[in-house]
Design a protein that fits this description.
- This protein has one domain: Orthogonal Bundle (Recoverin, domain 1), CATH 1.10.238.10.
- It is built from four helices and two strands, in the order αβααβα.
- It has a two-stranded antiparallel sheet.
- Helix 2 packs across helix 3.
- The N and C termini lie far apart (about 25 Å).
Length: about 70
């Protein structure tokens, strides 16, 4: 079975294991992926991904943004 590095990193920062990450967890994820976003860039990206406004994003939402950026 092929590994999914993005899923592995996502799950590592999803500390409560609910399959979703909040803005602080996303900042940690981006750091782990080598993206040097500052706080305002993390907020802007998170807001763009969290289109339903729940304050959390799921892996597939993040993956779509990550691949399209």
């Amino acid at each position: 079975m092929p590994t999914d590095p993005l899923r592995e990193r996502f799950e590592r920062v999803d500390t409560d294991g609910n399959g979703k990450i909040d803005q602080a967890e996303m900042a940690t994820l981006l750091d782990g992926l080598g993206v040097g976003f500052d706080d305002s860039q993390v907020r802007a990206a998170f807001t763009a991904i969290d289109v339903d406004g729940t304050g959390q994003i799921e892996l597939e939402e993040f993956r779509a943004w990550w691949q399209g950026r």
